[in-house]
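Lab meeting prep.
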Amino acid sequence: MTSSKRALRVAIIGAGPAGIYAADALMKSDADVSIDLYERMPAPFGLIRYGVAPDHPRIKGIITALHKVLDRPQVRLLGNIEYGADITLDDLRTFYDSVIFSTGANTDRALDIPGIELDGCYGAADFVSWYDGHPDAPRTWPLDAERIAVLGVGNVALDVARMLAKTGEELLPTEIPPNVHEALRSNRAVEVHVFGRRGPAQAKFTPLELRELDHSPTIEVIVDPEDIDYDAGSETARRQSKQVDMIANTLEQWAIRDPGNRPHKLFLHFFEAPVEVLGAAGRVTGLRTERTRLDGTGEIEGTGAYRDWPVTAVYRAVGYKSQPIPKLPFDDRAGVVPNEQGRVLIDEDAAGAARYLPGVYVTGWIKRGPVGLIGHTKGDANETVACLLDDRETHSAPADPDPDSVAAFLTARGVAFTTWQGWHRLDAHERALGAAEGRERVKVVERIDMLLASLGAH
C-alpha cells in the first residue's frame, strides 16, 4: 500500500509531450506526487525536438507550455537514460509506486509492395530524424535524385515533400544543424510527387499544413484537375467536417490556377495507389501506381489502369510504429502495448476478467497508436492518470522511495545522466551558436556534445 505520509512516487519513461502531459495531469490532481521523467535523449521534448520539421516554429512553440510543467518542483528530469539498459522495470519498482510508459513511435510502418527494399527507398521517420539532427541518425543523406516520390498524404508526407523541395538557403534561418544545411545546398531534387490512394476528401493532412506548401517562393504546388473528384461519401465528409471542406477547397483552387514558374515542382496526386517500386541493378528507377476510383462510400477500388513514374527515390510516409518495450506485452500488428484506458493488459483469468500488470501504465502513441495531433495526447494522459490514481491504494510500496536513492543508483552504474538544469545549459549553448550566425538557434547533433553542454563542460 502507498503510505499516506509521503508523496506518491511515479516514474514516467519518455519526456516527450505525452510524458510531460502525464506529469501535468498528476500535478493537477489532488494527490501529493513526486515525479521523475526519464528520457533516452540528453534533451527532453521528444517529437517536438526530433519529429517536427525545422520550418515549423509555430508547432515548436508548444515547448513553452511544456517548459512550465518541467519547471515545477514536483518534477525531475533524468535524461540520457535508456530504459532496459541503464535501468529496468525491476529497478524502477524499487524506487516508485507506479510507472507510466510514454515512449512514442519512432520507426516507419512497413509498406508491403514489390521493390520497396531497393536502394533509393527510404522511410519518412529516418529522413525526419536526419534533418532534425537526431543523435542516432546518420550525419549524411543521399540527395542525388532529381525526381522523387513520397507515398502518403498525411502531415509527415507533406513535411518530407516540403523539406525535399526547399533549398538549403531557404531553411538556413531555422535551427537545422550545419550538416543538414550543407547537404540540402547540394540537393538535386527538382520534382517531388506526393501520392495518395484515395481522393481529396480522404487526405489526412491538416488545412494549415497543406496551405504552407504554397508559401515557399521556390516551390510550385501542382494539382491535376482530374484528381478533383467526390462521391456521396466524400460529400458527406465535407459537410460534416470543416477541416475536410477547407482541404478540398484549397486543392480545388490549386487545380484550376495557371502554373507558375517557381523552380521546384511539388505535385499532389490523388487516386494513385502504389503497387510496385521499379528498379534495375538494385536501385530505384521508377514507381508503378494503379489508378483508383471512389466507390460511393468514400472508399476506393482499383481500375486496372497502371502508370509508371520516372522517379529515382521513394519515401514512404505511411505511418509511424512503436517498438516493443522490455518486460511489457506488445501487439506487433497494432504497434501498441495492450491496455485498457492505460492499464497494461496481460491477459484474462479463467472467469474472463482482465489481468493487469500491477502499477504499470501507458500513454500517448504507445497506448493508442500513432494517430492524432500532439494536443490529442492531453486527453490520453488524463485518462491514464485517472486510472493510476484510482489504483494507488493497491500499489505495492517501493522498497526505497527516497528520490536521492535514484540518483545514487544511476551514478553507481556509471550513467552520465542529464537534468532540467542541464537542458537550460544546452538550450543556452544552442542559442549562442545561433546568435553567432544571426539565427535563433543551431541544434547540437552529436550526443557527446549535447552531454558536454548539459553538464557545463563546453
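Slide two material, second protein:
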Amino acid sequence: MAQAATATPFMAHQALYELKLQKSRGNASINSASGRILYNFTGSACEGYTSDFRQVSELSSGDDKNTLSDLRSTSWEDGAGKSYRFKIDTRMNDGDPTAIDGMAERDADHITVKLKQPVVKTFTLPAATVFPTEQIHRIIEAARAGKSVLELSVYDGSDTGEKVYNTLTIIGQPIPGDRKIAEPDPSTSSAAMKTLTRWPVTVSYFDQGAKTEGGEQTPVYAMSFELYENGVSRALVLDYNDFVIAGTMGQFNVKDSKPCK
C-alpha cells in the first residue's frame, strides 16, 4: 500500500491560491485572467481523505468578452485507493450549472463506476487506474525513490464523469526545506513545513479516448507545482495550451487531524 511506504502522512490543510495570467500563446485572444482556488484537504489513511475544491476564474479576451467560470468539487477517497465518491458542479457565466455525481469501487481485476449525473450509467475501468489522492501518493513514492518519470492512468470523475486520463509526470530534483527561496509564501514560512522536502513536478493529462496522429498527442492540460512530501502543493502553474495561469499561495492553514490508531 502506498501510504505505508510514505514516511510522512498527508497533512490536513486549507490553501488559497491567487490566480493570474502568466502568458497566452498562438492565436489565443486571452489578455487577462484572475481568480482564486480554495482547497480543503482532511482525513487520514485509516478514515479516508476528503477534498473540497473551488476554482473561480475570469478570463478576458481582446474583444471585451469576459468568461466567468465557477467549479466546485467534493470528493472522498478511501485510504487504500479502493473507493472514490465525487460531486462536481460547473457554472459558466450565468448559465445553468452542470453536475456530475458518482462513485467508483475497486475490485481485484477492475473498477466499477456508477454515475447518478449527468446520466445514470454503470461502466468499468481497468484495475490499474488510480484515483487522485492515490495519484499523489504514487508521485511522492516515485520522487522518494529517485525516479524522474511516472506514467499513470487517472480517473477523477471530471468532464462527463466518463473520462480517463493518461498522465505523464516529470519529477525534478528534491528541494530541501531549508533552502532559501526567491518568492516565499505561507507554506515556505510555516513552522510545520520547514523541515520537509519538496519536488518540482509537472503532470500532463492526456485524453485516453482521443485518437493520436502519428503517435503524437497534445495534453488536454498540464499542471506544474512544487509537491511537499506531506501532499501540500505550492507554486501552481496551470497550462491550458492556449494560455497559462499561475497560482500563488496566498493563505495556508494547518488543520487538526486524528492520527491513525
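Talking points for slide two:
Residues 2-254 form one domain.
The longest strand covers residues 30-44.
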